[in-house]
Protein: ferredoxin--NADP(+) reductase
Amino acid sequence: MTDQNTSDTSTTDSRPLRVAVVGAGPAGIYASDALMKSGVDVSIDLFERMPAPFGLIRYGVAPDHPRIKGIITALHKVLDKPQVRLIGNIDYGSDITLDDLKRFYDAVIFSTGANADRALSIPGIDLEGSYGAADFVSWYDGHPDVPRTWPLEAEKVAVLGVGNVALDVARVLAKTGDELLPTEIPANVYEGLKQNKALEVHVFGRRGPAQAKFTPLELRELDHSPNIEVIVDPEDIDYDAASEDARRNSKQVDMVANTLQDWAIRDVGSRPHKLFLHFFESPHEVLGEDGKVVGLRTERTELDGTGNVRGTGKYNDWDVQAVYRAVGYLSQNIAKLPFDEQAGTVPNEAGRVVADDTVEGKGRFMPGTYVTGWIKRGPVGLIGHTKGDANETVANLLEDRPDLPGAEDPREEAVIEFLEGKGTPYTTWEGWYRLDAHERALGEPEGRERVKVVERAEMFEASEPGKKA
Ligand SMILES: Cc1cc2nc3c(=O)[nH]c(=O)nc-3n(C[C@H](O)[C@H](O)[C@H](O)COP(=O)(O)OP(=O)(O)OC[C@H]3O[C@@H](n4cnc5c(N)ncnc54)[C@H](O)[C@@H]3O)c2cc1C
Structure:
């Protein structure tokens, strides 16, 4: 790195390295862990816009995946350490800026993840009854910033996409409210799901079974519900040479293909809700009447020998009254940082942010500025993958240490004085324990592990009783 102002020369020796991590999802927490495990004397503040930490583990992972939600327990060990402080309810960009962070910290790691839906440009996608998966996920996972109700009037529903998020959405739509009641779903979500009229859920993939992005465990889980009959059309089982290669080269691809094949040849049972997995159907148009979804038109595709598909010119119309697109998540632009709109990431080299012409120093590393997690490499991969990411970013930050700009005011109290001086309310790690206990207590009378609190004000009050939100 070049051109760095070292205003505090004590950075490397006589005081802890001060690092701000923005975003307390798995990536930010793993980055904090890697910093603490490095052996370097560090002092970390983990900023989070929500009153509670854990990112998409709390607001993405499906409620009927308690084993995955349980990763939170492992992450507790990181946040319990004295070198890291959670400062929640703080939105980078409005409550605190890059200049503020540069004043108080030697380095900043952004781990702001992704929370929006990637667009799908087909005619009719904006009709009433056409939804993004991320919005639905936020609703059923009790995110405070989305509406409390969700329209679940459709008897037949289409889900576009063949990844794990599509499976989550399809499964939640096909299960009954009572089946989901033992989970942590909030009361408003249970009330909504109880009214759900969906009897048929149709999942559509443009390509074939060997190209689906499902993971084997999540796919097989679909079949475990006593209410869901999973149906695959034998006509949709097809492989070309590239597909056969893919199966030979990846155990995961082969397991997914085998499961789908098994489902295609078995007799259809009598479970009340039908969940169809369709392949070689490329979404062409959402059909509407009076501004509302009344169907989906797909074009039948066929393999072209390379694992890709081409259109056949044959179209199918499906009678559905709602369409959910699960075609990927998208990260948000971060104030004062470059952003690659196409990739939905902050341009970086192994975690070091590379300036573009929207910020000073085009083509060079932005001093003391790093990224990790989904904002670094795009919204793909499981929670575990963010660990390797964090290790790489932190290794580079530590390598840059002698050249870091150096905080003007590295005192740990400085940022607290700054926030309190502005009257900006924040939550703490001790506050998370209080909110956690509150949610568990809400679940106890019904024999549930927890009931999630949705309202921001209630989350804040349970975390920081007596503090003004
Ligand atoms: C619907 C869905 C289901 C999933 N299910 C699974 C699963 O079952 N198993 C699995 O292993 N993986 C699953 N994943 C993937 C997993 O959630 C991701 O791999 C992981 O969460 C990415 O971590 P991250 O920390 O980069 O981002 P995130 O988890 O998105 O965390 C980013 C954090 O940054 C915060 N933030 C954003 N902007 C700001 C700001 N301006 N100021 C302050 N804070 C900010 C956010 O509030 C959030 O807490 C799922 C993903 C989705 C979308």
About this structure: The first strand starts at residue 17 and ends at 22. Residues 1-10 have pLDDT under 50 and may be disordered.
